[in-house]
Each structure stands twice: as C-alpha cells, then as structure tokens.
C-alpha cells in the first residue's frame, strides 16, 4: 500500500516506509499556502501531483534522464511506485502572484528516498525562481526508515515572494530512488493581509 504510515515516528521511533508528508506545517491550508504531494504510483512523466491544494496552478513533477538510467519501479524494497534516476527530479510549483517588497516565501520540502550506496547520506534540494537560484544542502531533519529508505525534510525561505518556483532533488551519489515527495509553500504576509494593508492606506490618504 502506497501511503504506508510511519505510525510511531517521534513517539516510539519504530521505522517503516511512509508517505513524504510526515511533517504538517502549522500553516498548511491557510490563505496564501499551497500543498502538493507525489506518490509516483504510475510511470507517467511528467506527472501531476497525486494530492494537491493549489489554487494558482497545477503542480508538476519531471523525472530527468533517460532509460536505462532513469527507470520506474512498480515495487522496490517494499515501496510501491519508485523512480530511479541519476539525473534530477524537478517539481514546478505555482504560487500567489503577490511579489511585493516586504513579502517572503516559506517552503517545506519532504522526501522518502533511497540513496544508491549509503542510506545515511541525505539528498540535496535546490530551487530556482525567475530571479534567484540556490541550494538548501542540509536537511533540517532526516530519519532512516525500513529497507534502506530515508526520510528528509528541508526548509527554504525566499524574499521577496516569487510567483513560481522549481524545486530539484539531486542524487547524493550516482543514483537516487525516490518513493514520494511533498512540498508546502506559503506567502508571508498572505494575500488577504496585504489587501487589508492596501485598504488601510487608502483610508488614511482619504482622511488627510
């Protein structure tokens, strides 16, 4: 079953395969936020997120490389729907068009994956917007799961808020096997707050 639950994570530290969205940001579902998750249950490429809440556009994943170095497995080491690649996996995320000065974007990236040689070696996450690119090389949290898989979480903050970003997961060695990925984003301040600031400014000008 694809969405196996890491039932005792942070409680009894019992390792099992899990969906990527183990960590749920407190702001998921708030105004200005987006959420998307891929289980890779088919070999479609590019592939729309299996689950998403994104009013700004359809999140897509593209698995880089070509056969035989890029290959989809229906099942691998107890996980269903796994992409192997020696290239990158690119996630394209649409966001609020609010790109005003003073805004920023918080991004949480999560993945369940299996490195080629060393399960303790974390993958690297990179990002690119229309005006900026960079690398969030160190996960804020990682845990070894069953059957050689690893769960990692990365956090990125961009300023000002971009209306679109691409997230890349990079192999730690020659190849990486990715079981699932999840991305949460939020614009701060969120659009409603910015709109209220604008209305308040207009009222102040009228009073003068």
Keywords:
Jelly Rolls; 42% strand; 208 residues; six-stranded antiparallel beta sheet; 8% helix; mainly beta; globular; eight-stranded antiparallel beta sheet
What does this structure look like?
By secondary structure, the chain is mainly beta. The chain has a single domain, classed as Jelly Rolls, CATH 2.60.120. It is built from 1 helix and 14 strands, in the order ββββββββββββββα. The strands form 2 sheets. Strands 1, 3, 5, 6, 8, 11, 12 and 14 form an 8-stranded antiparallel beta sheet that branches. A 6-stranded antiparallel beta sheet has the order 2-4-7-13-9-10, with no helix packed on it. The chain starts with 32 loop residues before the first strand and ends with a helix.
Write the layout of secondary structure elements.
Elements lengths: L32 E6 L8 E2 L2 E3 L6 E4 L7 E6 L2 E7 L3 E6 L9 E12 L8 E5 L4 E4 L4 E4 L5 E9 L5 E7 L5 E13 L2 H17 L1
Antiparallel strand pairs: 1-3, 1-14, 2-4, 4-7, 5-6, 6-14, 7-13, 8-12, 8-14, 9-10, 9-13, 11-12
